[in-house]
Design brief:
This protein has 112 residues and is mainly alpha-helical. The chain has a domain at 27-97. It is 57% helix and 9% strand. The protein is built from two helices and three strands, in the order βααββ. A three-stranded antiparallel β-sheet has the order 1-2-3, with no helix packed on it. Helix 1 (29-54) runs antiparallel to helix 2 (60-97). It is elongated and about 60 Å long. Bound molecules: zinc ion (ZN). Zinc ion binds next to loops.
Length: 112
């Protein structure tokens, strides 16, 4: 099955939300934890840098928090890596159950 626009052959196609289509990809919890912890880690790293520039180095609490969040992101990264095969399968099932598509290039809509 190819996901291309039948009109302009663009690959920039997006699924159109359908009423009554309950099939959704199964997003693993580890992915949500991973995204959240990476976001938190970036925030902590930035505050570490800011503290380091504007005062005499980051506080011990901030350093401990950064280390803890780093460990959490590493663990959730490994968990997500294990979940990845199942996530791919559920994404494929979602793509196949999706009947209505829209092209972002030419706004063409079509049904499979
Ligand atoms: Zn198109």
């Amino acid at each position: 099955m190819q996901y291309r626009c039948p009109k302009c052959q663009s690959q920039k196609v997006i699924p159109v939300a359908q009423a009554g289509n309950a099939t959704r990809p199964d997003v693993p919890k580890s992915l949500m934890v991973l995204v959240f912890s990476i976001f938190l880690l970036l925030l902590l790293i930035i505050s570490n840098i800011v503290m380091w520039i504007f005062s005499k180095g980051a506080g011990t609490n901030l350093q401990i928090a950064t280390a803890i969040v780093f460990v959490i992101s590493a663990i959730s990264g490994v968990l997500f890596w294990k979940d990845l095969p199942n996530f791919k399968l559920s994404m494929q099932a979602f793509m196949q159950s999706q009947k209505a598509w829209k092209c972002r290039e030419c706004n063409n809509q079509w049904q499979i």
